[in-house]
Each structure stands twice: as C-alpha cells, then as structure tokens.
Design goal:
The complex is a heterodimer. Chain A has no helices and eleven strands. By secondary structure, chain A is mainly beta. In chain A, the strands form two sheets. In chain A, strands 2, 4, 5, 6, 9, 10 and 11 form a seven-stranded mixed sheet that branches. In chain A, a hairpin with a 6-residue loop joins strand 4 (about 30-35) and strand 5 (about 45-50). The radius of gyration of chain A is 14 Å and the shape is globular. Chain B has no helices and eleven strands. Chain B has strands at about 5, 10-15, 20-25, 30-35, 45-50, 55-60, 60-65, 70-75, 85-95, 100, 105-110. In chain B, the strands form two sheets. In chain B, strands 2, 4, 5, 9, 10 and 11 form a six-stranded mixed sheet that branches. Classes of the chains: A mainly beta, B mainly beta. At the A-B interface, strand 5 and strand 10 of A face strand 4, strand 5 and strand 9 of B.
Chain lengths: ~120, ~110
Amino acid sequence: EAGVVQSPRYKIIEKKQPVAFWCNPISGHNTLYWYLQNLGQGPELLIRYENEEAVDDSQLPKDRFSAERLKGVDSTLKIQPAELGDSAVYLCASSLGAGVGMGTDTQYFGPGTRLTVL
Amino acid sequence: SQQGEEDPQALSIQEGENATMNCSYKTSINNLQWYRQNSGRGLVHLILIRSNEREKHSGRLRVTLDTSKKSSSLLITASRAADTASYFCATVFTGGFKTIFGAGTRLFVKA
C-alpha cells in the first residue's frame, strides 16, 4: 500500500513569491492534516480536513495561507506571498478518521516539503 | 501552551543500552501516542496508550502513563543504531480534537 505522497520534497523561493504544496493521502483515509514543523520542534497543526470540509483551521494564517481538498482526496496548501519566517518543513498526514475525537486515530505522515524562503 | 514537553531534549547512549524519554502535559487527556521521526522523514506511529491504561508494550518499546502526574515515559530496551531518531509524544486533550505534539527528544545511539 502506498503511503502519503507529498511534492515537491524541497522548494527554494524568494520572499514575496507564491508557493504550493501537494499531498495525496492514503486511499480511504477521510481525515487529512497539514502541519508545520520548525527545526528542532514538533509538528504544529495548520488545518485538518474531514473529507472535503476544513473542520479545524484555527492555526492557519489566513492572510497568506490557503488550502483546499477537492473531492475529499488530494489537497494543496498555498502560501502567497511567502515570508522569511515561513521557512520550515510542511508535513501532510492522513488517518481513517474514526477515532479523531478520542485521539485514537493513527496518523500516517508523508516525508514533508522543506521550504526555504530567501 | 498545551504542548506536551519531552525530557530530555537530547540523549546519547551506546548500542545495547536502554533509552528512557519522558513526556509531561498540562490538562487531562483522552489518549497519548508516541511517534518516531528519522532525519528528513515524516513521523511514524509507535504506540498508543489510553487514559485508563498504565503500561503498554510493543516489541522493545514500553510506555507508561501516570495520569495523576500528567506524564508518560517511553523506554526503548537494548537500543540499536537504527533507533537513532527524534521521538515525540502526542496528546488529544479531553473534549478536544486537535493532536498536540511535544518538541521531541533527540536520541542518538552510538554503534
């Protein structure tokens, strides 16, 4: 079974440029997560989808970040315009979704996209 | 912050030794999970312990949970060089839906 796929793996851009990340979750997983991970830190949730609905986007900086999950499968995360402080690893994860409310859902992570903003 | 805190931040041991990592949190939880992250990779789920469990085993892993102290520990026995990674505890707080990850413990196992 294929795992969570993310692309690109690395991205280097100039500040103020736009950037987009793509995620393909594990087939059959209803819940999709985007996390930001700074160096030496744990992942921080940006947005969580249940199928195509964003059910938790409280940590997403909506002035410059946007996300979508069309048809409840693939998802894209966009930053426009990027700032120096956005340099980080952006992780996508997916889970079945049955146990989200009790914290029993196992999340499966992709390898991440390492963004460098110059 | 509701984030769990791991202790120590970094740990270096010899192959064959045991490694113990601790996680503390601030409010009551539903469950606690441990994840491993190898350098440059995504996180991999290791084990889940429910709030009504005190100890759980999986292979060379042993996890304990003390809800009265709001803490958990992860013990890796007979460590191997391949265990070199960062280890994160993750919690979902009672009444919440968001998984909160700690800052992690960086384990280095020397061959």
